[in-house]
Structures are given as structure tokens and as C-alpha cells.
Amino acid sequence: MDIRSLQCFLEVASVLHFRRAAERLNLSQSALSMRIRTLEDEIGAPLFERDRRHVALSPSGQAFLEPARIALTNALHAKAQARRAARGELGSLRLGFTLIAFYGALPEVVCAFRVRYPDITLELIEMPSGAQELALAAGELDIGLLHPPLSTAALTTRTLPREPLVLAIPSSHRLASQPTIALSDLKGEPFMIAPRSIGSHLYDRIIALFQQAGFSPSIVQEVMPMTSLIGLAAAGVGIGFVTEGMAMTNRPGVVFKPLDEPVLYLENAVSWKLLSTVGERFLEVIAEHLIT
């Protein structure tokens, strides 16, 4: 019992005329009659009482009429939903992100995705980059927004625009009034940094930056996340790097200043193992908002 056969039955039941029903359905009258006979054979009862001049619903046809309407409505809805799912307009997406990412353009991307695809369930899961790699490889996440480099060969990675880092400085500090900060200005200053276990690549780049300037940073505290570093800077504990996105927060007691040279960046990427059609739709939205 297929959708087309139900449509044929309901059309004949509506007009009670095979020729007119065939015209409306864009079928030949013989093709329509064959579909009705096949449907009657499948049901095991005649659906119409008909002769050369008269067509009427049989008792079986009358009993079949309303359930057939409901079945056709449900079947057409199911067909439409299946097609939407195939286009990536329905389904679910488990999205991993770092806390840093949500201080950039990610909220805008998520909002745009939700507006465009309201019937997709988007699960947002905050976790560090290393944990995202493991979750992506294990199939526990569909897509991750994280910070390269990645060590998992099974993952596909697309580079996103990197984000400059700026210095969070207590507003009472002597450097707070300078428009930019020279690296040499930080010699001997109390410095805060995220633990190397959280992001070895960025940690090593920061340490190397100081060493290239001829000194090592005076690390007074290892701290994460960057939001905590900003709070400690406001408390006068020390100075540390945060992203430009986090510098947009209006936190009393702290100012944000760019480094003269060289500019330090945080690398960003989107990564996945197996990409669903829903995932493809999310990447399209990312490309519109983040990739120029």
C-alpha cells in the first residue's frame, strides 16, 4: 500500500468519477483503475461500487476513507521529514568547544545556525582541546572547535582565523597607561600562564618568546581558564596573555594592552572524524561567519 495508491483512492472517493479523478492525478483512466484494483486486492474487499454510470463508496470504502486520509497525511509528513533529514535540516549535532572559543565569534555562529535550522538539536559541550580530540576520535562529539596542533591522525581539521593575544594588566600597574607593551617591559614582572598540561604548544611559544628577548618570565602562578587569569590580574596578582575576545569583557581593575612585536596568536580550528549532513550544514554556517 503505497502513497500514490492512497492518493488515487482518496481522489476517486472525492469526485466519485474515475475519468475526472484520473485527470486530476495526471494518470490515464486505465492506470487509475489498475491502481484501485490492486489496492482492493491488497485489502481483500471492494472499495467502490461502480457500473458504467455510477460510482459510490462501498461499505469497506467508507470504513477505509478516514484512516486512509490519516495514513496519507502521515506518509507525506514522513516523506518530507526524511527528505529534510537527508538535506541536513533535521537531526542532532554534538558540538565541542573550548571556553576561549565562546568569547570569539562562536555565539554568533551558534545563533545563526539555530535560526536557520530550528529543528536540529544542538548539544554544546565545553571541554579543553585535548579532551575534544579524544571525544571526537571516540565518536562522542560530532564536531569540535579547538586549538591546534592536533595529534590524532584520524581527524579532519579545517583552519579557522587565528586570534591575537593581548596582555591583561592590573589597572593600577605602571604599564596600564601605555598604548602598547614591549616585551622588555615584562622583565621581572609577575607573570601568569596556563599550565603546560592544558596547552603545551601555546605554553612553549610564550616561553620561547621571552627567551628570544633574552630573559625568562617570572611566573608567579599557573592559572586556567583565562577568565580566572583576568580576575587575578584585576586583583593585582600579575600579568598574563588572554585573547582579544576575552579582552572585550568590561572587568573593573584590569586593562588589556597589545604587545608591540612580535604579535602572539592563538590558533583555531574546527575538527571532525565522520561528518554527517547536519555537520556539513554547520560547517557552511561557520564558513559564512568565520572564514573570509
Labels describing this entry:
alpha/beta; D-Maltodextrin-Binding Protein, domain 2; 292 residues; single chain
Oligomer: single chain
Count, helices: 10
CATH superfamily of the largest domain: Periplasmic binding protein-like II
| Count of domain modules | 3
* N-end to C-end Cα span: 51 Å
Quote the beta fraction: 15-25%
Order of helices and strands: HHHEEHEHEHEEEHEHEHEEH
List the uncertain runs. Answer: none
Tell me roughly what share of residues is in helical segments.
40-55%
Largest sheet: 9 strands, mixed
What overall form do the CA principal axes indicate?
Answer: rod-shaped
**CATH T-level fold name of the largest domain:** D-Maltodextrin-Binding Protein, domain 2
What is the mean pLDDT?
Answer: 92
CA radius of gyration is 32 Å
Tell me the structural class: alpha/beta
Please tell me about this protein's structure:
There is one protein chain. With 292 residues, the chain is α/β, with parallel strands linked by helices. The chain folds into three domains: 3-86, Arc Repressor Mutant, subunit A (Orthogonal Bundle), CATH 1.10.10.10; 91-160 and 267-290, Periplasmic binding protein-like II (D-Maltodextrin-Binding Protein, domain 2), CATH 3.40.190; 163-264, Periplasmic binding protein-like II (D-Maltodextrin-Binding Protein, domain 2). 42% of the residues lie in helices and 22% in strands. It contains ten helices and eleven strands. It has helices spanning 3-15, 18-25, 29-43, 59-86, 106-116, 129-137, 200-212, 226-234, 244-247, 277-290, and strands at residues 48-50, 55-57, 91-97, 120-126, 143-146, 156-170, 190-193, 218-222, 239-243, 254-257, 265-272. Strands 3, 4, 5, 6, 7, 8, 9, 10 and 11 form a nine-stranded mixed beta sheet that branches. A two-stranded antiparallel ribbon has the order 1-2. α7 links the parallel β7 and β8 (218-222). α1 (3-15) crosses α3 (29-43). The longest helix has 28 residues, at 59-86. The radius of gyration is 32 Å and the shape is rod-shaped.
